Amino acid sequence: MTARTVPPETSETRVVDPQGLEARLDALAAKADGDIAAVRLEVLALLKHADAEGRRHAREILDTDGSGWGCVRRIGDLEDELITAIFRFACRHVFPVGAPSNSERIAVAAVGGYGRGTLAPGSDVDLLFLLPYKTTPWTEKVCEWVLYMLWDMGQKVGHATRSVDECIRQARADISIRTAVLEARLICGETSLFTELSERYEAEVVDGSAREFIAAKLAERDARHQKDGDTRYLVEPNVKEGKGGLRDLNTLFWIAKYFYRVRAAHDLVGLGVLSGREYNLLVKAEDFLWAVRCQMHFLSGKAEERLSFDIQREIAESLGYREHPGLSGVERFMKHYFLVAKDVGDLTRILCAALEDQQAKEAPGSISAVIGRFTRRVRKIPGTLDFLNDRGRITVADETVFERDPVNLIRLFHIADIHDLEFHPDALKLATRALKLIDGDVRAGAEANRLFMAILTSPRQPALMLRRMNEAGVLGRFIPEFGRIVAMMQFSMYHHYTVDEHLLRSVEVLSRVEKGEEDDVHPLIARLLPDIAERDALYVAVLLHDVAKGRPEDHSVAGAKVARKLCPRLGLSASQTDLVAWLIEEHLTMSMVAQTRDLNDRKTIDDFAARIQSLDRLKMLLVLTCCDIRAVGPGVWNGWKGQLLRTLYFETEVVLSGGFSAVSRRQRAERTLEALAEALSDWDEAERAAYLDLHYEPYLLAVQHEDQLRHAAFIRESDREGKKLATMVETHAFHAITEITVLAPDHPRLLSIIAGACAATGANIADAQIFTTSDGRALDTILINREFDEDEDELRRAGQVGRMIEDVLSGRKRLPDVIASKTRIRKRERPFTVTPSVTLSNALSNKLTVIEITCLDRPGLLSEITAVLSDLSLDIASAHITTFGEKVVDTFYVTDLVGHKITNENRQATIAAQLKTVMAGKSDAAREKMPSGIIAPTQANARGGNTRNRQKTGGA
């Protein structure tokens, strides 16, 4: 009933000799002399060997010619031959009948993907055992014998045993079964049975039901896309089920076959549905996707459908992709993948347009026909003669619209935006076919650029229109620099989408904030946006901030160059062009400073303010930074990052406004202490005086007043209960962060032990505030990323983290043991490499040395790093932990034991060398030396009690 989508190759596809296989099976049967059970294991071994050899041969050919379609054809043919041999063996030798009755007939048919004559290495084998009537003892035994033999071979078999009547009845009632029968293909057995099913299926199921079938398959497709994120640009796409994957091609052909009654995809060319070029595109897309899927199955040894990071590099190498300047081999491979996925979308759109034009009309003169003619009336659109409104969708007035005026390729989207119209498939199909009309003259024309800027800065849905332009190929053609990053992925766990999709999502975030739809997520930028005068420049910067990705030079610097060339063409003034170029060049600066620097350090703010120079730039950079992070992917943005950015903004705003330095640090600390004393006025005088004497200047300057009050109650309660060790948990839902405060005897490895305990519970540390009290205790606040939405769940989880910290600090659990199971590199991180780097700077802080490390993330890394810093006799004033997918950028503000910067070059080199050793994972010995606890007196007093931030002027 079905035919293959792609025409057969001219080369031989068989990977096993069917006559030779059947002859060897017949020989085994003769040897058994009627006792088939005695040779069953030999039969099974022979079949397994034939299967393994056939698949091995298919893989060898795939590695040689790279043809995915050829590979699945070979495996499909191999399966046909195996099933035919097993079925005939069962009928001839296991359950022979001399004169079979009319009911003792079976047709074995392939359905599903196997019904198309294609079978991926790890796919299920879907079979239909077709009977003339109900099951008989003989048919039941034969079917069972075939199935058990296939199962014993290790194959995954889905099957159904039905009569012709049952097939027709169930196909009418169930779209999935209807689709399976549509794909059915005879493998072996009674041809007349299969012919009967085919004829009755066409007459009793297909006739008159095309509309129902098409609607059901398109709805099924939409639901599948929604489940997978409704984008074809996920960097770990599902090759089978994802948008632009093989299932979309299957759906396209199911619909075409059902509606047009075609046997092969090539027939659509003769019907005028596809052009010759589009058919070739279909062939190439299917061949490529099959090649990828086969490689995935061969590499993983199972039906792996998600193209995950850990196999992308191997598949790229297998398919021959090599590194080019600016792009690795795996990134070039994935770009090809996404371009193919886009082609699949184009083909689907073209087919849908043809279907809409050619679907059967209602019977003439019927009421429904009259109503239909009225409701489907095409209406004029005010202000244009080139486009029409067809039931809420913009379409072309005639097929020469774009040839008459190529600027109409941009105007199409502008008019759709103004009038809130969807797109008729005909309009997008014609636009896709007319892309060559967008030449240098069109790009340079004032009208085309004016229309484009109106689309980009639209107060309605700019991202939606830009996405439609991108899908049609218009955006990349109109802005070639954007075209270079279409379908480009970055081989990184941090980025969830291709570069072009990321940029369009950034515009979408900006538009939503401007329309007041994101006030709860971005309260500050929602307040700032109305005051930003250069709105056009901001939208251009957001659209183009990553436009130079994939080039050999830094993409921020290269992107600024692109902006200087492109902005004048778009109609921006010289000052606006300079502003856009500056925003693109600095678009990562604010994020990096906020996440990797100590915002309580005066020099951090002064240096950042000197780089920004104006409040207008500060506002626009904040907006761009938030849009950029939000558009990276689900879960990347959280309230903690928002809080860091807000803190950096407000601190910098004061400096740029001429404030901040009016009150000295000492004066601010004194005022803070006075406020704390007043808030604790209900305490006993002696108790209050003793408490106020605990804290040094860094604590008073860095910790918010309300947090100081919580700490006071926490320490007071711990002291009254005589606890040497205590933890306190506080959740911050808006910031998506949970705070764990640890009170413990000070110890040089305290932060390392706490970090290890967090790693053992799977908690990701976002930041750490480290303080020492005057009586030799540590008051450390560890901020971990929130995991649960509900506070009750998060508090329970944080309590487990706190108890683990107490257990390892008290010695009840040994740190190397509790983190051992967590320190294996996770599967998703195996394919990534990050060159370890260490930088030490004395220019980033007036009082502290800043150590920044960059390396591949792994469980327990922070614990090992801080242990090394402790071994090097460095006091950590603050730690800032930033993770970008598989890469960590951790920053530590440190001094030596007497509170001085690390200025000796030899010592700096030693620190860098030892940190690189642990970053490279060569620190097993260091991990084994981790202390089991710090409560024992000999450990608590190891360095005289007060070992960190002892100087009243030190720390942050």
UniProtKB/TrEMBL annotation:
Cofactor annotation: Mg(2+)
GO BP term, example: regulation of nitrogen utilization
Pfam family, one: ACT
Protein name (record): Bifunctional uridylyltransferase/uridylyl-removing enzyme
Biased composition (Polar residues): 938-948
Catalytic activity, EC: 2.7.7.59, 3.1.4.-
Region (Uridylyltransferase): 1-382
Domain HD, first and last residues per copy: 499-621
Sorted UniProt keywords: Hydrolase, Magnesium, Multifunctional enzyme, Nucleotidyltransferase, Repeat, Transferase
ACT domain ranges (all copies): 739-820, 850-930
Domain of life of the organism encoding this protein: Bacteria
Written domain comment of the UniProt record: Has four distinct domains: an N-terminal nucleotidyltransferase (NT) domain responsible for UTase activity, a central HD domain that encodes UR activity, and two C-terminal ACT domains that seem to have a role in glutamine sensing.
Function of the molecule: Modifies, by uridylylation and deuridylylation, the PII regulatory proteins (GlnB and homologs), in response to the nitrogen status of the cell that GlnD senses through the glutamine level. Under low glutamine levels, catalyzes the conversion of the PII proteins and UTP to PII-UMP and PPi, while under higher glutamine levels, GlnD hydrolyzes PII-UMP to PII and UMP (deuridylylation). Thus, controls uridylylation state and activity of the PII proteins, and plays an important role in the regulation of nitrogen metabolism.
SMART domains in the cross-refs: HDc (SM00471)
Gene Ontology MF annotations: [protein-PII] uridylyltransferase activity; phosphoric diester hydrolase activity
Chain residue ranges for the region called Disordered: 932-956
Catalytic activity: [protein-PII]-L-tyrosine + UTP = [protein-PII]-uridylyl-L-tyrosine + diphosphate; [protein-PII]-uridylyl-L-tyrosine + H2O = [protein-PII]-L-tyrosine + UMP + H(+)
Species per Swiss-Prot/TrEMBL record: Pararhizobium mangrovi
Family, as annotated: Belongs to the GlnD family.
Regulation: Uridylyltransferase (UTase) activity is inhibited by glutamine, while glutamine activates uridylyl-removing (UR) activity.
